[in-house]
Each structure stands twice: as C-alpha cells, then as structure tokens.
Amino acid sequence: MNIVTCIAPVNIAVIKYWGKRDEKLILPLNDSISATLNTEQMHAKTTVMTSPEFKEDKIWLNGKEESFDNPRLQNCLKEIRRRAKENVNSEGDIDCSWCVHICSQNNFPTAAGLASSAAGYACLVYALAELYKVEGDITAIARQGSGSACRSILGGFVHWHQGSASDGSDSIATQIVPESHWSQLRILILVFLERKLDSYRSKCSLGMQKTAETSELLKHRISHSVPRRIQEITEAIVSKNFEKFAELTMKDSNQFHAVCLDTFPPNVYMNDTSHAIVSLIHAYNNALGENKVAYTFDAGPNACLYLLEPDVPQFLSVINHVFPPASQTSEYLKGIPVESTPVPKSLVTSIGLEPQESGLLKYVIHTKVGRGPQILTESNQHLLNESGQPKF
Ligand code: DP6
User: Fold this and answer.
1) Biggest alpha carbon distance in the chain?
2) Which atom of ligand 1 lies at the shortest distance from residue 15's CA?
3) Residue 199 near residue 144 (C-beta atoms within 8 A)
4) Which family does it belong to (predicted)?
5) 146 lines ligand 1 (CB under 6 A)
6) Distance in angstroms (rounded) separating the CA atoms of residues 292 and 284
7) Each residue's pLDDT tens digit, 63-88
8) pLDDT tens digits for range 234-278
9) Beta pairing partners, 11
10) 125 lines ligand 1 (CB under 6 A)
11) Mean pLDDT over all residues of the chain?
C-alpha cells in the first residue's frame, strides 16, 4: 500500500525544554520529561500517500493547503527517505523519488496553543516511517520537525535526552514507564477566554532563541536545576510519589516562566487568569495539607493540571466555584466524564478565594496518560481519496 494514516498524541512536559544548542537540527540545551496524553481525547491525525502519478509534494493542514516550502517539514522527509534507502530489507515497492501528499488535522483547537506541533510532527514522522518501512529509532527524526514532537512518539512518561553528538544522533527520546504504570494519574487542561490584550503576548519560536541568547538565569537552570530535577522526578514517577512529582512539576513550570521573563525583551506567556489558577492551587493544596494538584504552563496562558483520579470531582467543583463557567453545557467539560460533588463550605472558607467573573474559563479537557501513535487500518479513515486529494 502507498497510503498510511495514523493518529498521534499530545504531550505535556513536567520538566520543560527551552533553548536550543543547534537551531537547524533542533538540539536542546537541556533534557526534558513529559507525559503523553491519551489519544481518545486529543490527537493529531495524518494521512501520507506517495504515487508515481503525483506531480508535486503537497500538504493540507486543518482543512487548508499550506506551502511545502518549510525547512522543518523538508528535513523530516529528507531524513525518512535517507533512512529508507539505507534499509536493505525494505520490499522496495515505493520509490523515494515519487512525490508525497500529506493531509493532517487535529481533533482539538489549535488556537488553544496546546502542543499541536508536537502531535502533528510526531504523527507525520510515524506515518512516513510506516509508509517507507523505516525501522529503528524515529524520535530523532520527529525532533527535527519540532523538538517536543520526539516525546510524542512514545507513550507513558518520556525522557528526551539532550545528547552531546553534533549530528544529533543521541538526542533521542526514551520511555521511562508505560501508560499503564500510574493508572490513577489524571490531567485537566483549562482553556481560558482570550482577551484582546493576549494577542500582544510573545510567540513561542522566536522567544526560545532570545532566551538562549540573553538569559543569565537559563545558564543556572540548565547546569543546576534541570539535571537534579530530571533525576528526582524520574524517581517520583517510578515510585508514584505524587507529593514530590507535583512539587517538581510546579517548580519547573515556575522556573521556565522566570527564565522567559529574564529574556530580553521578556517573553510573557501567562496571563492574569493563569496566575489566579496558580494561587488557587496553592491555596487548595495548603487547605488540604498536601500537594493534591500540580500546575504547569507552556508557552501560552492555558493551564495543564496533574492530579489523582479520586481528587478530580472535588477539585473540579472548586474550579467551578472560583471560575464559574458561562454555561454548564456538555461543551464545557470535554473528555472523561466526572460526577459533580458539592464543595464543602469549610474548604471554600479555608481556600479563601472569591468567585471570579463567569466565563473566564472557556472549557476543561479531562484526560489521562496514554500510549504513543497508532496506525489506522480501515480505508475509510484516510484523509486523502484514491487520487490523493483531501476528502474534506
Ligand atoms: C514550552 O517543541 O514547540 O512546550 O522545537 O522550536 O518546535 P520547537 O519548540 P517546541 O517547544 C515546546 C516548549 C514547551 C516546553 C516543552 O514542551 O518541553
């Protein structure tokens, strides 16, 4: 077959990647660790097809044709083809000189700034590797599309090693534990209402480069904080120590945003609602006397929270109390259903936070840790028709 379709997951880092030592090969300045999220709630889906009939390479993203003249995309394809030619066992039914058509879409809003490039490039590289029968590690290929994409190639908790080779061959991702390891762990993604002023906030890619060029604090982070945290959080994950896991996750998110502010000009990603969520979680953990919930923020204002399954109903009720939704429709809570529970008055009093104006929180996605990319074998799943045109 000369057509392959697959889905790939989003991943959320608990020890963040920020700063490159090689912009072209996308080699990071530090190791990072993430959890891969379940594809049932969020995924990218990609169909790749090659044929001697195709006149040029083409790509459609989320319903729109985009330029193929994108160095990251070209690098991934070039590397896949190089590896395919190396593979003497390949059946040789696909000629690497044929053009490719690629069609990809996310089942979650790209505007939410939720690691869509990681899922997208992981999906693309996984599908191309299947099409061209490339064997062995492909995380180093996905990394050349978007650094964090290498972590979406694997399920469970994943460690991206910065590596030291100048060709990037040892900058790969490996699995720490599979998705079944910590089955109680849950993830809530809080998507906030965008304010007009938010459009003035920094954009991710340029920001990362500026941090590497100007931040003094980044030097401390990569030489001291991250190596220690990588070791400690790995132990916490393996031993399912939520208290420690939560502490390290929150501290690393805070340090990542501190490094962003230490960049000149500064990168500002969190907004007032993000900071209010941070205060709420510290107040909640304080009231309960232990770390029940951990927050982490990427290069955008939306919050990603880690917590354990038994704590989800009560915590969500607290969120609803402090950040009342505009309306309680099915559109508000997406993903794994949650039974609603009343918040004990005493808890509200000890948290001591007044309800905010309604509608600040647009919706919540409730998900868990999941596996890596999967191939879809049914032909009706393909996003391209028999002549290689998008079905939409
Ligand atoms: C804040 O992987 O999107 O989400 O390598 O330039 O494509 P590029 O950047 P990207 O950066 C993600 C940064 C982060 C932290 C993380 O996921 O580790």
Assistant:
1) 70
2) 18
3) no
4) Belongs to the diphosphomevalonate decarboxylase family.
5) yes
6) 8
7) 999 999 999 999 999 999 999 988 76
8) 999 999 999 999 999 999 999 999 999 999 999 999 999 999 999
9) 36
10) no
11) 93
